[in-house]
Amino acid sequence: MRQSINLSARLLLLCLVIFISCQKETDKQSVVHEELQSTAANRENGHLKQTKTFSSAALLRWMDFQLDLYKANVGSVGGPSGMRFTAYTSIAAYESVVPGMPSYQSLSGQLTDMPAMPETQPGYAYYWPECLNAAMSYISKNLLPPVTKTSEQIAAINNFEAVLHNEFADQGASSELLDRSAAFGRQVAEKIVLWSATDRAAWPSGAFTTSTTFDVTTGKWIPSGTLASVVLPYWSYTRKLVANSLNGINSLNPFTYSNVPGSDFYKINEQIYNNTYNPYGYTADQRKLINTYFRDNPGYGSGHYMSIIKQVLAKAGTALDISALVFAQAGISSMDASIACWTLKYDQQNNYVVRPLNYIKNVLLADPTSAWTTIMTTPNHPEWPSGHSTLAGAMGEVLMQQFGSDFSFTDATYEGFVMPGYPNGLGSRHYSSFDDMTQEIGESRVYGQIHYPQSCLVGKTLGKKVAQNVLNIVKFKKD
User: Fold this and answer.
1) What are the pLDDT digits (tens) for 76-101?
2) Which residues contact 473 (CB under 8 A, 6 or more apart)?
3) The domain that contains 293 carries what CATH number?
4) How confident is the model at residue 46 (pLDDT cuts 50, 70, 90)?
5) Same domain for 384 and 310
6) Which of 314, 299, 315 is nearest to 59 (CA)?
7) Best exposed site among 244, 371, 384, 441 by fewest CB in 10 Å?
8) Average predicted confidence (pLDDT) for the chain
9) Nearest-angstrom CA–CA distance, 363 and 356
C-alpha cells in the first residue's frame, strides 16, 4: 500500500516538474517575443527615455533667454503681471515633459478650468528637451505682453528655438523624433495660452474711484499718483490657479493706526522718515544697495524671481523632471500669492493701509505739499501686505520644501548689471537659507521707505501659507 502511494507521489511530482518546465519555456518565449517587439518599436519609433534621463540645461537656458525678454520689457512684466507670465510658462514647461515622468501626472483637472492636455502617441519616443523647447518658444511669442511682439524679438525667439533644435540633432536625435516632440510641445503650449486668456486678469475694466484726500484721523490709503494709474485694483478678480489656495490666510492687517506722537505707528514712521530703521546694523550705503538690488526696475521686474529659481536649480543640479516640477510649483504658488496679496490690499473694510509717504507728509511734517519723497518711488497701491514679501514667501516656501531649510546659495542676478549709480553692477547676495533671502527681500522695501516692517513680515507669512496650500492641494505625484 505504501509503495503504491509513493509511486503515485513520484508520478505527480514528475508531472509537476514537466508542467513547470513547459511554463518556463512558454514565459521565456513570451519575453523574447516582447523584447523583439520592443526592439522593432525602438528602431521604428525611437528609444523611449524618461524625462529624468535628461539634464535641465534646456530649461535653464530658456529661463535665461526669457530673462532677456523681461529685461527688454521690464515696464510690462513687473509685479503680479510678470508672475502671471511666469506661472503659465512654468505650467507649460511641466506639461510638456510630464508624460515622460511615470510617477507624476498632468495638472489638468486640478488647476482651475485647466483643459485636458494633448496626449503622446503610445509606443512612440519623445525627446523631452525638444518638447520643452517648442513649448517655451510658443509661450514666449504668444503670452508675453504685446510690447514684446516686435519683429526683432519674434525672430530672436525663433532663432533661439532653432539653435537648441539643431544641438539636439547634433547629439543624435533623429529629425522624425524631434519633429514629433516639437509638435507635442507646441500643442501643449497652445492649450495653455488659450486657457490663460480666460483668467480675467484684465477684468473688469473701468475707472477706479476712491478718496484722494488724506484723513489724519482714520489714516486710510490715498493714491500716490493719479486715479488712472492706480495699480491693479481689480487683480482680486483674476482666476486663482488653485481654487482653495487662499484658505486660512489672515485677512486682517496687523496695524493699529494712530497719529499721536509716541504711538507705535507714529514711531515706525519716524524711523522710516529719518532712515534709521536698521535692525541688522548695516551702513546707509549697504541698506541702499539692498533696496536697489530688489527694486527690479530698471532690471527684470518680477523676472528676478525666475532668476532666483533658475540659480537654485542650477546649483542643486536637478534633472529635467525635478527642475520642471519645482518651476511649476513656484510659478503656481507665486501667481496665487499675488492674487491673495492684492485682494487684501484693496479690501477697504479691513485694510487700505496708508503708505509712509502720505503719513509722513500729512502727519509728521504736517505739510501735504512738502517736496519730501521716499528713496524708492512709492507704488500707487495700498501698503499692506507687501507684494514683494508675499511673492518671496511663496517662492521661498516651495524651494525650502524641495531643497531643505539650510540650502545656501548666491543670487547673482544683477552682477555686472549696469544701473544708475552702479556702473559696475550690484554684485551678488549670498544667503544661508531661503528664509534668509525672503527676510532680506522684505527688509529691502523698508529701506526704500515704501513699507512698514510688519507689512513685510506678515506678507512673507501670507505667501508661505498660499504655497503650503498649493503643495497640499495639488497632487503632482500619482497616488
Assistant:
1) 777 888 899 999 999 999 999 999 99
2) 110, 242, 244, 245
3) 1.10.606.20
4) low
5) yes
6) 314
7) 371
8) 89
9) 10
